[in-house]
Every structure is written in structure tokens, then in C-alpha cells.
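hiii, so i know i said id send this last week but things got crazy w the move. better late than never?? heres the sequnce for the chain we talked about at the cafe, plus the structure i predicted for it. fair warning i was half asleep when i ran it
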Amino acid sequence: NNDSHRAGFRDTADGVRIEIADVNGDGTNDLVYYQQNIRFVGGPHVPGNLTILWGDCQERVHKWDSADPIMINDPYLSDMAVGDIDGDGDADIVMNVHDRGFTNNFLKIFRGPDPSQITAQQTLAVPLTNGQYTDVMLGHWGENVGGIGFPGDCVDLDIWLLRTPPYNPGVGYSQGHYDNMTVLEYDCILGQFPNPLDATAQGVHNFKLDAEHNFPLYGIDISDTDDDGEIDLIAAVDGITGNISYATKNGNSWNTQNYVELGDYLGASIAIADVNRDGNMDFFVPTEVTLTRVQDSSAQNQTFLLLDNLREINTVEIILANPSGTGYLSSLSFNVGRRPTMAVPGQLAGGEDSALEIAIGQSDRSYRFANSAMWLDTQGWAGAGDFLSVLSLDNEDMGITEVSIAPASYDPATGQARLGEGTRWVNLTVKNTGLNPISGSIDVDLEVKEVVGGIDTLVYSNDFDGTVVNTNCPTCSLSLHSYTGEYGPSSSSWHVESNASVDANGSATDDWWEADANPTNYMWAGVDHEGDDNQSGYYNNVDEAFIIENVDLTDSDAAYLDLDLLCTTAFFELYLAEQYAVVERWLYEDSCGIEVWSDGNGWEQVFFSGGWDNERYFRLFQLGYDPEYNTYNNNFYTSTTTGWA
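okay and structure toks below
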């Protein structure tokens, strides 16, 4: 935990998980945050940190008080779950971590309201020769709480674990299935969970999901579908079969080997929720790669994916329960960009009975090819930013999802299509964009407008030399925002910078920087190392924005943004210690961007420039590679500067 976000790359937190829960029972949600931290070859061992940020509705998150970090000596996290295990109103934390030699699971339990207390902690060590716990979930097993079961039975949350075949550091995973389930019942009298290796322990349940293959399960979730307090549904991404497998509870046993088609996708995770509020549980599956092109190697018992699988657009698949019977309907597919890894449903808008929204998170992944080359998402434009998307859904909705006009020509100078004169074919794709099946017809009105020959109206202009034109937009205003919290409300490092002859005081002569090639004043985000705006500085880790607000484009046919812009950015990389010719690395880069907000679509990026862009262009135009495709470890450029343009 660094006191300043200006910490260098050696202090990289490697934060891997965050959960929201009321840990101390004060009625306000807190943040449970885990960071693995990084360790350098030849350097000391660095433990991980589990930190609680105590919620305060009167303050921004960066001002919340932080509990003393809990040191995790075996720092490599496989999964974490948070919930109120014993029903005392305080959320508890369960995590599974591994040691540096990857020889043991360590199931760690931290109970609220103060997880740092030794008496509130429990650790269960399970050698990986018994299998690796890849997923941790919390839910009530359904034990008898009427006095017939063992004395520690109560209405609580038990630990559900997905377990692999045995693992040995020397040989890897043994042959076997990856569908092994272990459930540990909480003992309300002892306040402990049983050791799964203790043959005499009560409250340990082992069973299989009966997968019909030896592929890993790439995501799993559990649910109580009938609100009786007991888990009765388990759903998992069924390896690379293109299916979702699910099991339903039948008395004391599980009805397994039920399948619903996902399609030509490898699911990254799965979540269970009632998205359309019909009383039936549905599945949400963000997809990692496509399975449209697959090669099998019977000699090596391996399945290979191809480069095209990594290039193709990824989706979130929503699989609705059949409202008229058993089973599930065909999946609804929504394009969401590159590599979504989580899809969390929640009520973000609308009434209680309206369809849930889906918060979609994306992650940079890495893939190694048979020739030792690597694909690193972080090096592509799609992986250059951290994006969070919200998919807003309606139970019933229609939309035009595609418009094509032919014939048309492409203007390479502008990157735009041009139609010219004459008759054109217009094809529209009308799609049911709602959740529920509908039937019928709609009318589509096509209106042709002459945009090129129209009348241009200046809405807002600012040259930062004192001339502001806002006659057609009197409500337009500049708003400053600091996302680091270093500046107060309506303030940030953005400022009007003078050219090279004088500084902001109008007296001293500055040294020359790239930005000062502009002979006039300009808006600039950088400050110097003392925090002043002198010399158009490049102080690190600035996360600031200025926004032109209240721009009214009512009745306009098109809008254009014309500006002079300079972006100067750099990067650094952390290389992983691997025994390969091409090693994995994490790219951290500065970037500049312009986004446009609309009520219908939220923020949409219209300009981006990153510190690694020169390297991206080099690979594209000189080598003919995707920017993400790596055959070497070095870089040919150290930064990217656009110049005033």
C-alpha cells in the first residue's frame, strides 16, 4: 500500500481482487481489496496485502480510512469470496492462496467486524497433491438445523470449492477431471470450518459434476433458485466444448450432465441471476475467445486455437431460462469488444421489476504459441485502457443494429466512406434487442439528408488566449476533474500554459519543451516536479480531465470537433521471469484521449494516443504483425509524441 500514487514500478501493487461488503456492520458498504504485489529476481520475498477501506458516504473513496493491511505470506491468489458466514451482520472473507513453490493451497478465513484479529482468522493448509482449489464460493449447503445434524449445524454460509486433479510441481497436473466439488460446512459452535483432509471431520462433502471430458472448467457459480436458503443450482463453463453444464439438486444428490449450448465461444466466467425478473435464474457468460477455428492434435492430446480466435470480437452471452417449461432458451449475444472477463448483473436503473443491467469488466490476457511467440492483449489498442461497460437491458425492445449502403467508395485521405450521386441500396438489420421473445412487424422510415451541403454552425470555440465564442451555446462551460483526488472539486492540473517566451507569471523565460512549439497559449495537463505549471512539466501518474459541458446539438445532422492537439507519452514494461525465448510482460503506458458523452451511449472514445503507439505502428506497417503478436522482447521506440496537429 503506497502513500502516493507516484510510486515507481517497483511498488506495483498487482491488485487482483476487490469486493464490496459491510465488514464492520455499520450499515455502510466497505471495500475489501487484495494485492499480490510483485517480486523481483534476486530480491526479497514480498508478501501480499489484504486491506479493508472503511466506507464513508460523506467522502470520496480515496479519503476513506484504511485498516492496517493484513500480511499474506503466501501471496498468489486463486479466488476470494465475501459474505456474512454466521449471520451476525458482519461480512467475512474467504480466500485461497498458494505459496511461492506452488505446493500448497491455503484456505484463509477472516471474520468481521475486525478481520485483523488473530481470533477472527483460520487457515487450512491443503497440499496441491490433493488438487488445486480454483474457485471459492459461499452458500448454504442445506444441512439439517433442527437438531438432527451435528451440533455445529446452523443457518450459515458454507464454503464451496472447485478442485482440479492432483498437482505436482515436477510433473504438473495428473490425468483426471477438473469437476471435483468440495463443500465445507461452517461449525457455528466452534466458529470454524473443518479440515477437508481430516477423514473423521463432520461437514465435509465431496462430489463430482460428471464432466464428460478432461478440460478445465473456466468459470462456475452457485445459486439458490427457490429462496429456501439452500444452494440447488451449479453452473459451469464446460471446458472448450461450447456448452454450459449445470447440475440441479435432487434431495441429497445432484442431477448432473445437463447442457445448454453457448456457441463457438470459450467462456471466461459465469454468473447466475434472474435478469428479466420472471422468477427463473438465467446465465451470464462473458466470452474470452472464439472457437470458430480449432485444431486437434491426437498425438499430443491437445487442442490448439489459432490467431483468428484472438482477433475476433468477443461477446457477453445471456442465456435465459425457458419461461414456459424446463431448460434454457438460445443465447442472446451482445458484442462488447476485447476480452470481457466478468459480467455482474445488478439493478442500476429502472424499477424493481425491470430487467437488470450488466456491468462488464475486461482484462488483458496472454497466450503462448507453439513457436514460443506470444500474444499480449496489453500491447494492442483494445488493451491500452481499463474499460468498464454497462449493458442496459429491457425486457422488450427493438433496434437497428446494422446499416449498410452500397455501392460506396473509401477515401483513404479521410478514412471515410463516400457515396456520391445516384441510386444506392440500403440494407438495415432490425433485431430484437430485448430479453423476451416478441413477434410482429415494425415500420422503418428512411430519411436522406444533405450533410456536406448543409449549413455549419459554430457551437463553441476557445483559443485559450482569451477569445471564447459561445453565442450558440451560452450554457457551455469548462469543468475540471481530478480522478486522483489530488485536487479539490472543480480543480485539476489542467491550466492555461504560456508559450516558450514567458511562464504563467508573464515574466520568467522557460526552457523549451515540445509543447512550447505552439506560439500561443494552450490548455495543458502537465505540471513540473514541484507541482507548479512552470515549464509545461511532465509529472508522473497524472489522471486529470477537463470537460466541455452542456453542449447542445439538438436538431443537428452531424457534429465535428476541430482542435490543435499535442500528446507526448511514454511507457515502461515489467518482464516476467520465464524460461522462454519470448517472455510475458506487462505494459504500463501514458495516454491521451478524447471521449464524447451522449445520454444514449454514455462515454465513447473518439481519439486515443498511447506511449507505446510507435511500437504498434512499427509492428503493423514494418513487420506486418498484429501489435499484440510478439517474436522479440525489446522495443525500438521509447515514447510517442503526436506533435501539434
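btw Residues 399 and 431 are 6 Å apart (CA to CA). thought thatd interest u
miss u guys!!
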